[in-house]
TrEMBL record:
The organism of origin for this protein: Xylocopilactobacillus apis
Protein's name according to its UniProt entry: Fido domain-containing protein
Family annotation (SUPFAM superfamilies): Fic-like (SSF140931), Winged helix' DNA-binding domain (SSF46785)
Active site: 238
Gene3D superfamilies per record: Fido-like domain
Length: 412
């Protein structure tokens, strides 16, 4: 499909500025143009221009095609998820969540490790929170699994999301100093160049956030373009001194989880991290003065990132489902009781879908199969003698698959 050319490219293509301006007006006045009510001022020579543009977009063929593909892939993901046990779905979700949260931190330059996030996930699942790092981040994303989504009805909701998501990670000097948000001007610098200036003060922030809420609730706008233009505008406003990127990507993910499937949603930051330059380029082009507020190409770029993440999910699921079938066949080749076979199958699912998660303890297995520890220990001892599992930890007592059984499933 032919590339959609943004207004900026025509500014440099046309020799006569009048031809360029005629094209701008033609696009803005097109009866199919969708106007968002979001008002922006482009950055010109490192300062916000006094000229304002309303963000709009056109239903380009690329947007229509990508929308169709994204819906279709989301349905394919749901179909594949239904082939998994509830336990396997849970392992896949949390394993992917760890990668997503690591990516959203990494994009912002926040130091974290996958193991640190995994430990937080494990403690939250066991209701052992305390002052664990990233607890708020994990909790909010974890709600997607429970089909609980953060809603935004007034500007205070943005602050509440920030409070729970990132406040504990933000330095004291970067905490909001206004009634709800920052009250002083901010700028983003790359090298020795200013690449963005946020809204001037808290009143401007509140005005633009109210515009954003109106856009997010505008039923006349298709939901994917609406979602991604809202993402741009939140970053444009730069509501807080720190944490804007993580809050903005969370809001996108919450919206996508509500409208698509949760796996598509929690892959978004991971996809951005893999194609970071494309992500930043889309923002820069959207903010260019010669783009005059057209969001068509920005939406196309974000939809491509979303679709790329979905394809990664499909590949994970296809490989995982194949390995599940293979593990069943491998287990059938061993002389096992049905209950021992099911215990091993749980450990196989953990190995296939939850490799970044903490190991399943013997206590977990006892609860899952409603077995006394005495009965379970006898079964586990039998599996150890057969060379199928081994002790990984003694406190809490934890067994894992042996290298032998892993190789049978993954490599032969």
């Amino acid at each position: 499909m032919e590339k959609y050319h943004g207004l900026k490219s025509y500014y440099y293509k046309y020799r006569d500025p009048a031809d360029y301006q005629a094209l701008v007006e033609k696009r803005q006045d097109n009866e199919l143009a969708m106007h968002t009510g979001l008002i922006m001022s482009p950055l010109v020579r490192e300062f916000r221009n006094h000229v304002q543009y309303e963000i709009f977009l056109l239903p380009a063929p690329q947007i229509l095609k990508l929308s169709e593909e994204i819906y279709s892939i989301s349905l394919d993901i749901e179909i594949r998820l239904k082939q998994l046990t509830e336990f396997a779905q849970d392992q896949l979700f949390y394993n992917s969540l760890i990668e997503e949260l690591y990516s959203t931190n990494d994009i912002e330059g926040v130091r974290s490790s996958r193991q640190e996030i995994s430990d937080t996930v494990d403690r939250l699942k066991r209701n052992d929170v305390g002052s664990v790092r990233f607890a708020g981040l994990v909790k909010l994303y974890e709600n997607f699994q429970k089909e609980k989504y953060s809603s935004i009805h007034n500007v205070k909701d943005f602050r509440e999301i920030w409070n729970e998501l990132v406040s504990s990670e933000v330095a004291p000097e970067d905490q909001p100093d206004g009634e709800l948000f920052r009250k002083s001007a901010v700028k983003i610098v790359s090298g020795d160049k200013i690449i963005h200036r946020g809204d001037e003060d808290e009143q401007a922030i509140i005005t633009d956030l109210n515009r954003l809420i109106a856009e997010m609730n505008n039923e006349d706008l298709p939901y994917l373009p609406k979602c991604f233009l809202a993402h741009y505008y939140f970053e444009y406003i730069h509501t807080f001194y720190d944490g804007n990127g993580r809050v903005g990507r969370f809001i996108v993910c919450a919206y996508l989880a509500r409208k698509l499937d949760r796996m598509s949603a929690i892959q978004f930051s991971t996809s951005i991290a893999k194609q970071r330059q494309s992500y930043y380029k889309a923002f820069n082009e959207m903010s260019n003065q010669y783009n005059q507020g057209e969001g068509t190409n920005f939406v196309i770029s974000m939809m491509k990132l979303l679709k790329a993440g979905q394809i990664d999910v499909i590949e994970q699921l296809d490989e995982g489902i194949h390995l599940l079938h293979k593990s069943r066949k491998v287990l059938d080749q061993h002389n096992l009781t049905e209950i021992n076979k099911e215990i091993l199958f749980v450990l196989c699912q953990k190995e296939i879908f939850g490799r970044r998660l903490s190991a399943i303890t013997d206590s977990d297995l006892s609860m899952m199969f409603n077995l006394t520890r005495y009965k379970l220990n006898k079964m586990l001892d039998d599996l150890v003698q057969q060379g199928l599992i081994e002790v990984k930890k003694t406190n809490p007592k934890t067994h894992v698959l042996t290298k032998k059984i892993i190789e049978e499933i993954f490599f032969y």
